[in-house]
Amino acid sequence: MNKERKDIIVAGAALFAMFFGAGNLIFPPALGFLSGNAWFLCMLGFFITGVGLPILGVAALAKAEGSLDHFAGRVSPLFAKVMGTGIVLAIGPLLAIPRTGATVFEIGIKPLFPGVAPLTASILFFVVTLFFVLKPSTIVDKIGKYLTPALLLIIGMIIIKGVVNPMGHPVDKGLAQPLARGFIEGYQTMDALASILFAGLILSSLVAKGYKTMEDQIKLTCKAGLIAGTGLMLVYGGLLFLGATASGMFDTGITKADLIVSITNTIFGAAGQTAMCLAVSAACLTTAIGLTAVVGTWFEKLTHGKLGYEPVVIVTTIFSTLISVSGIEKIVSFSVPLLIIAYPIVIVLIVLTLLGDKLGSPAFKGAVAGTLVVSVFDALAFLKIGTGAAGTLVARLPFSDSGFAWILPSILCAVVLELIRSAKSLNLSSPAARD
């Protein structure tokens, strides 16, 4: 195996490990269970936002030299900092870190030790997290090195057995617009947001291995992304199918965590359930440690040291402890309005970055502004907050029923501002203007 191929495989495996957080286990089975015999269309929608966008995000950041300032700075430098902070908070103490604690309790502890209180489990989990974040140790690397393969082995065995000998048959659940539902549910992985931060790590590793030209870095990053994306599709698709085969077996009100535990128990019995619980718990720990460290590093750098790393990670773990006891279902419900606003903006920036450098800053500003306005109305509508005539207008936009009302305003605002920029450039370059 030549050096380039080996480096691509290593980078692809690293990307897969970064994206495949143990908390993401809960969403594909739940979506399959919800969709029933419409699982295939749901899967396609989920693949777009849960797999395709993160990989495109890595490619876009590679093109932007791994810099968030280059990626979002064409809107404005302030916007890049605000957006970066929002993403760090979302994949940090507001959503993703508390979700790891809640996942450990509901999947890793509750099935094995039902008498343990959620707060007790959460405090213990985040005390251990804080210990490793404040005192980095090779044990964390070793846990991550061996746990990801172990978790994948367990999941792989469950998926293969569940596909070869299905638990049941997908039933009609009456889900409207399964493709759009899968697209929106893919937001919950939060991997497209995380890709903006992960890309810099991949690029740095490639540069360290001797790939100095941007062409090589983009090419290798895209190939690594294909490897990571293929792995994610196999795992997510398999889990979603298992959920669909269970669509007629369990009560409609079953929680996401109870569903994956019940599926594992049905397919492999108590031994398989115990193995899954232990692997998920340990994998969530490594995810929490990594994300907490990212939060501390970001705010220390953003404030030029005014907010120190240690105080930030301490506050992060305390806040995450309090949020995690709300449980997975409530944390997911908290996240939906934020993701409805954030994801379309990230999608627009990814697309514009990949289109090339011919678009000017006005196109970026217009596209983001149009997307932001509509996405805010969509989030308010999800929260059932009245928005009057403006909300009614947004609801009548093309593709609004599918959750894509932001597409047309984004394009129109980008085109209008770009045309204005072009007209000004022509006026300034005309003979009359020069005279």
Automatic annotation (TrEMBL):
Where in the cell?
A: Cell membrane
The main location is membrane
Q: Which residues cross the membrane?
A: 7-26, 38-62, 78-96, 116-134, 146-164, 192-212, 224-250, 270-295, 307-328, 334-356, 363-383, 403-420
Per the record, membrane topology reads: Multi-pass membrane protein
Cross-referenced InterPro entries, in alphabetical order?
Brnchd-chn_aa_trnsp_Livcs
- Keywords, alphabetical: Amino-acid transport, Cell membrane, Membrane, Transmembrane, Transmembrane helix, Transport
**Protein family per UniProt:** Belongs to the branched chain amino acid transporter family.
Q: Which NCBIfam families match?
A: livcs (TIGR00796)
- In Swiss-Prot or TrEMBL terms, this protein is called Branched-chain amino acid transport system carrier protein
